[in-house]
Amino acid sequence: MSFCRALGAALLLSLPSVLQAAEPAHVAAAERFLQLAHADQLATPVYAQVQQAFAQRFAEGGGAGREALLESYQAKANAALDSRISWKELKPQMLALYTDTFSQQELEELIRFYQSPLGAKVLQKMPMLSAESARVTQERVLEVAPEVNRLLNQMSAELAPKSAEEPVR
């Protein structure tokens, strides 16, 4: 077994003890916060993207009339995703993440905030804001990419060995 696999296995095996180290009330506060934040739906966009990828590949592959094949592979993909990113699989790690990051008091303050009208609005609007922020950032990255690539190429040219006629110092 490789070192990375052994380390990963050790970390996964220690996860329940990490949760046990946190006070039950602290873990309960983290769980209440995650429920309020609809954390159980974190993976939903991933499922949708995978389903769309299969549908696109199916259409590109001329699968018309063979929808049962698409559905079969989409179900297999869902099962693969479920084994790794279902809420049942993610929840222990999310609880550990939040109890390690926030004190019980901080979680209770977050809960109070997100139960307020403004907090509820933040929760409702955050997915759209995050997606739009990512879109705007991606547009800007695409705008600057040619300049960054030109600079990378310039640097590579300066780092490249000079022609054979020049003596190497």
TrEMBL record:
<dbReference type="Pfam" id="PF09832">
    <property type="entry name" value="DUF2059"/>
</dbReference>
<feature type="domain" description="DUF2059">
    <location>
        <begin position="89"/>
        <end position="147"/>
    </location>
</feature>
<keyword id="KW-0732">Signal</keyword>
<protein>
    <recommendedName>
        <fullName>DUF2059 domain-containing protein</fullName>
    </recommendedName>
</protein>
<dbReference type="InterPro" id="IPR018637">
    <property type="entry name" value="DUF2059"/>
</dbReference>
<feature type="signal peptide">
    <location>
        <begin position="1"/>
        <end position="21"/>
    </location>
</feature>
